[in-house]
Amino acid sequence: MSDLPLPQLYAQTLTTLDPIFSDAVSLSAASTQSTLADALEKLHIIQRSLNLLGVYSDNEGWEELSEGALVFMTIGWVVAGCEEKRTGERKERVESLKRSEDACQQFVEVLTSYGIITPEEKAGFNLDGRTPSDPASRRDAKIQQYRKEKDLKERISAKVKRSGGSSHISFILALLPAPPRQSSGTSAFSLPDQEPEHEQDRHLILDVLRLLSVATYSALSSIKMELDILSSAHLEEIPSEPSRDPRQGGRGEEDTTWRLDALPGQNDPANLIAPGGKVLKPFTILPSASRETDRQKLKGEVFRQGWRLPTMTIDQYLQIEQERGGIISGGGQASYDAPTESETLELEAEMDGTVYAAEQAEKKRLKDENWAAYTDENQKGAGNTTNKG
After folding, report:
1. Which domains does the chain have, with CATH numbers?
2. pTM value?
3. Which GO terms describe its cellular component (predicted)?
């Protein structure tokens, strides 16, 4: 790991997290998730180092802590924010949210135990995650939270001049020394001689901690809401076990004639109409798949019968009718413009010098002779002896 002192390592880690917490990059990007994972690893190392050195004690107040120890109290909020911004599958997301919730709770407990926020403030801002059931109380809590957060931001921004940003991460960075290009032997818990441009005072650090405590309220509410949604979605995905009547026994395993659901191939359009044109089973005619829009499909599913019949599109029905000879082809202008049989024979007979032309000429001659013989035997008007018509 790095040889940097803890304050500079912490500042280096926060610098990489600032674009993520400022919503300047996409959380779904692989590089963003990799940055969060690396930052969490460094933050956990810093936390373990603080615990090994015994920086904090349960029987102390914030007045007894050094400025460096007060600044490192913000690490709990940063860890919670990193866990909240982790993405993944539903199970991984739930685990990240629970870790973020635990980090928020621990951060609030530390601030309360050291007297940085009073128990009344903790209860007033619902930092324990319990949302008031009364809508008016929830509205008042949000208004109170907004006003206090705005007041703290203005107060901190007036004191912080080194940082150009106004995000929570930039406020924490203003309390830390910038990572040097070369490692120095600075103590891990004392701010070095290179102070920020503003005077490092304890009240500024306390204001930043109180600002983070107020921001934790909305974080806990958001985490609780998302966990409820993910939990509900998980319950909907679990299929319910259908109740089985023991009196049925093995009925239905072999005999399927009584079943109402369709068997494979039973509702095939080819099995709904007999070759002679008889309808074997009622079915529903659907519009052509190429002409039916999604809007028409949705509209058709609103008002329909309470049972489901086999379906067949117009194209499938016409294809079946054409295969069994139920559709007459021809007619229309194209049929009128097409040459007659006599005209076709005359055209083909004009191809002199070919056997095919001679055959067609002979066919035309025989046809003309037959027609002449027919007209001789059946004179015009011979059958209308009573002069009708």
Report:
1. 6-191+198-236 (1.25.40.540), 268-327 (no CATH), 341-375 (no CATH)
2. 0.55
3. cytosol
